[in-house]
# Entry
Amino acid sequence: MKIVRRDLTRNGPGSVKMIPEEADDLWIAYNLIVAGDSVMAVTVRKVMREAASGGRDAERVKLKLEISVESVEYDKEGAVLRVRGKNLLENEHVKIGAFHTLEIDVNRPFVLRKDIWDSLALDVIHQASDPNASADLAVVLMQEGLCHILLIGKSITLTRARIETSIPRKHGPAVAGYDKALTKFFENILQAFLKHVDFNVVRCAVIASPGFTKDQFHKHLMLEAERRQLRSVIENKSRIILVHTTSGYKHSLREVLDAPNVMNMIKDTKAAQEVRGLKDFFSMLSNDPERACYGPKHVEVAHERMAIQTLLITDELFRSSDVATRKKYVNLVDSVKASGGTVHIFSSMHVSGEQLAQLTGIAAILRFPLPDLDDIEM
Amino acid sequence: MPRKVNYGIDYDDDYEDDYNDDYDYDYDEEVEENGITAKTMPAKEVRTAKVWRCPICTYDNEDSMSACDICGILRNPLVKSNIQINDVAAPFKFNVPSPDDLVSSGLQSLKMKSKDNQRDTNIPVELELSAKDQESTSASVTRQRGNGVNEKDYAPTSGSIQGVPHSNVNTEAMSSKTGKVEQSIERKTASISDFTPETWMIPETVDGELSQLNLAIVGHVDSGKSTLSGRLLHLSGRISQKLMHKYEKEAKQQGKGSFAYAWALDESAEERERGITMTVGVAFFTSKKYHIVLLDSPGHRDFVPNMISGATQADAAILVVDASMGSFEAGIDATGGQTREHAQLIRSFGVDQIIVLVNKMDVVGYSKERFDFVKQKLGTFLRTCGFKESSISWVPASVMENQNLVANSSDARLSWYRGPFLMDAIDSLQLPARDYSKPLQIPICDVKSQSQSQVSACGKLETGAIRPGLKVLVMPSKEIATVRSLERDSQPCSIARAGDNVTVNLQGIEGNRVTAGSVICHPDYPVQVASQLEMKILVLEISTPIVIGSQLEFHIHHAKEAAKIVKILSLLDPKTGKVTKKSPRCLLSKQNAMVEVALQGPVCVEEYSSCRALGRVFLRASGRTIGLGVVTQIIKREN
# Structure
């Protein structure tokens, strides 16, 4: 994200002009914009115009509109942000108070004006402008008959492709059928791999599977690259890593990120930190369950007793709620930080964020055990 | 098409408007009526083969004629035609039971006795009829109305008819196929107890005929499972000497001379190259007492899902342990040993008889101490799994040297062992009870698509029986297919019953509609398909606790899906089964609990109380089995 102009006061009103550069940045913008803010951008609107002869004519006009946000929608696969709201600026074509939907796309600048720039929002902006934290890992997660191709970005994980086939067993006369089916399966994966994995953007590609499927696919990939002279694969041979996982389902992505050789590559990125944070939480929950808690009520109670050492929270909680709830969470985050604890804000588009969201979206590792939490209803 | 229904159609065509309300009668009544109707139909069919009687002029027409020779009336009138109105003189008052019904009630007693004999004729007839029905949907509508008319018939005499059981399956089949699949499925799943098996389904106990035993071979990696299977096949004569020489030669060429016997089971290039088994190898051989189906499972950790899929079919198991120093300890290791995991899985498949083969005794010099050590350590573990002392047999052997397998050991060092050799131990296994009298269910473990609309599916029959010519339903794709032929052990067979491991060649279904994990079942007793289940689970030893939202892999018979824990309902006391705590925060090792899981995709499943094989569940995560369970309730059904 490119921050063009910044004009704001901490915990006060202000505006920021920015240009999203990739899908990740749109996600960040999605988290920033809440109902009540105002967004100004160049957009296209269909305008009715009366021609001289009296007939109506619809024309598409490019205008600069500022709207007061009522709702925000993020289209994951299309990588587009839709902001809907009422018009604020005086304009020759559009009346004040008319509804309009702004589409914020990659490489289109927009200005965001907020009433209160709280610490969270400032944090997000700061992170967005940080250039070196781009994770960008492509993962081919497979098992026999099932394959997911995922792109792990700074704050989002996108499923680019999912390939599923039925591969027959290999006994007796059907051995040939097995080979054929497996080759066809690998061919499909190869096509998807070439389409979605761009080595200019991605740092490295990981092929992960239980058993030997990854080795078989790697061999197939290399052979085909030689045969078809696929330059992108041949040049980047060294950037393809093989990792062992226990299944080909999406939740095994955690194991991929945990693997030591992958961890080295993405050490300082958000995704890796999130995985580690969640792992710590689970190990605490198994070793000493009274020092770990989840659920808003439990976390609140723990917080009242100043017991929280690490707070794990998903960004979904900030986004969807009304002003009061959002303020409450922001206060929680601020006070945990103030008392010396650490806060991990999980992106709900990452695997670990999804898992935390399943777990009510908020969890905490405590400084000292609180046994009476069990008695409190969740 | 029986004459009886023609009557109904005719009359109904005249009086459509008046008798529309008939169709709103309770299903129960309709079932009864169909029952009665069907019973008379077969009777009529038997009496007058291949002719139909014109309702107007009562001329017996050939079956192939679609219109009456004499009066020209269409056999299945599609449109209300004026001719019929003119022909029928006065409106039928439906206050007197029709002659057919009188005949049928008189025949009922006769029917009940001779039903079984007539089943055989019924099936082809009904199939033919149903095929015809599918061509003309309006004919089905008219027949439906015919049934409606009959209901009105029975209103006054309903008292006597109530006692008729809803046991006629075949008519249901007909009406259901003409477009009312969902409704009849709704009705029929309730009345599974009404299924009465036909005579060909129950096997006659003929002396001298061998029954089939499904034997799974499990154990830690490299303990000698595939080699044992290969040896047994060779010694029982299944594999010729020539073939064995060929395997030996090829194995030596690849530098894997010791794997020669295992190559009989591990047939793919991948398995041979790496020297492991990756999927379950199925082989057949015969012992003195049984036809044995060997299920040679992979021992490697990564292939446990395949082992689960294979061993689902097992009736008994051989647990192979490596007696050599270090290997046995690795196998029984708590954190990763497959000996342990396989034993737990086998027990939870419902297998209670197990033979422990302590292999590679030659490496430890056939020492009694080592054998006793293994027996004692493993014995305590097996007892904690739930195996009874009396159903475990311990056999020391060496597969490589062929000691103690098919004959008493010739080696002097093994003379301290007084028990049976392996084949004797296998013969002393008891067959579990087979469910012949339940409707057909075959969970499919493997599918081969032969050509367009022809598919081969292998599996073991859990309940019921099958033979060529039958129409079967494949769930979850809900497609009907015909059984073209059956194969057992690469030889065609005419009937397969519960417990048999067969390959079913299906016709009339696309290859992509049938997958491993589907279930072949009786068209009227479809297996339930669901994606949200409530189950009772036992948590094994786990490193991270199970919480709401935990993502796991769900294994059931041959199907597997990604699953998520939606709710942890309660903790149960392991001994009494009563609820000790409601809505716990998380589940730790060795706890019993009721949980609710949501699956990513639908699977065929039945409650454990109604069908054991389709109700057993395995939960795995991070490469280990973390839970064993049974389905107690199906929450959301897929329709």
